[in-house]
Sequence to fold (290 residues):
Amino acid sequence: MGKLLSSLILPSLSIGRRNLSSSSSSSVNPFATHIKTLSKKSMPVSGKGKKYDTFHNVDDALNLFDKMIGMYPKPSIVEFTKLLAAVVRMRHYDIVVSTCSRMELLGVFHDVYSLNILINGFCQLGQVDFGYSVLGKMLKLGVEPNVVTLSTLINGLCRQSKISEAIGSSDKAVRFLRMMEGRGFEPNIVAYSTVIDCLCKHGLIKEALDLFSEVKVKGIKPNTVTYNCLIHGMCTSGQQKEATRLLNEMVDKNISLDIFTFNILLDALCKEGMIFEAVDMVDTMRKQGI
Fold:
């Protein structure tokens, strides 16, 4: 790691600053972008001037839902989806699930966006199997899943917290990725990065590197998040040489190091007792405005 610090990290800081990437956590979570997109399209309902992103609590959202259900004709599924997105932002996933059920009972037909929100609700509640049931329902109804649908399910599998099922969850995530490919879907880098992160966190480093190589062979460009997942896995498993190789690869390909990359490296330096090097890195990060 000493060579890593002197020959790579400090010179690369100015490179990384030019294209400083966004948050790793939001990039790994495909649903965050989905919700942000919906919120940008927020509109008042029936000219009342009430916007979905101005709710103070979930009761406001439920009151508006009751008003929408009583309208004739009912608002489109787009308006109901924006309302659901607002409830998601308040993290009331159980209410998301129950509201989706009420919509269906009251004759409001779902589309891929509202069903994605329902799948995410189940996954956030730790009920991934129900999320897969929604996918099955989508296919029966002829609603075409999109990359958000599939990435959300993969993310749900990888988030399962039962230690005894950890390896099994990784295996399910990989198999589901293969199923996506087999059905003609083209997973994006978010889906692949999610699975790579899952494999690394469960100690399946070789499998993660194999999948990473496969991604590059397919012509899909890894991003900062992909590399962060792998570098963290390498540092955790004591494979500093491999971490160094990946960092050099990032610099060679002009892929930016972000705050999460530096946090991983700082943690590795501190664990190796390289405190002065860690302090130097922090000082340099401050000078770069990171």
Remarks:
- The chain has 16 helices and no strands.
- The two ends are 21 Å apart (CA to CA).
- Residues 2-18 form the longest helix (17 residues).
